[in-house]
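Worked problem 6 (solution included).
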Amino acid sequence: MRKLLFLFAIGYAFTINAQSYYAFSRTQGTYNSITGATTLINGAWTDFVKPIALPFPFKLYTYTITDSIYVDDFGSVSVDDSNGEEFMFFGEDLESRGANLSEVSYKVEGTAPSRILKMQFKNAGLYADGPMFADSINIQVWLYEGYNVIEVRFGPGKIDAANWSDAGPFIGMIDPNNLQSFLLLQGSTSNPTMNTSDLTNFSSLIGLPANGTIYRFTPSQFPNGIVNTSINLTLSQNKISISPAIEVNEIRVINMNGQVLRSGKKAENIDLSNLPHGLYMIAIDTKDGVISRKLIL
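Solution. The predicted structure is:
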């Protein structure tokens, strides 16, 4: 079984004091398998590292990726082909359950500048389960253009507790530019804690996250470094109001699939009356960059 390279890369840091670059949230939704995707690998695979050409620049901590990211069988994403595993979305040795049974694929959805790159492991097995391969997981990683948000979405799965190398999956990330900036999820899958300072207490999550679980990592800084906590959105009679008043180039209303549903130069001219109830992102383009806010209808 492969070693956890992420741990060795930062293990020398031990205990440091650090404030997380990311805000973490857990929500529950419906897992939908991605259709019409591009296949990366679908044979009887074991170890692999496959590149995906990025359709848009993406920032991981302070490191901007402009060309490709690399997905591997260890449930990890790297910024290059060195198996650096800068983002772990499962952190366990995965393996195909048989030819054409465990497809790894990706798809770009939405329209610029609000696209989503979606990566999917479908019915992947666990190395320690072989040769029976009764275990299986379904998992997706979404990268949001412009916002640099990362989501890990869990589908239906089953893993015998005896087949974990530890108590559960390793999920976390590290700044490629600063190996002392990191984030690791620990504890209960339904209420994880976020470890950003102490690798002496390094541990995995416990068990497999439930079907429909969504782990979201949102940068504390918006694109171009904008952090403007004084901007508030209010909704009245299906119209958006922004306070205090700021100079705006464009406002976009975006659903969670990355589709721009409404746009305009003035908030009061954007009509939300025909949109279904749910969670939306509001992107406010200003001369200095983009401010993003969530809106629930």
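Discussion: The CA atoms of residues 15 and 198 lie 4 Å apart.
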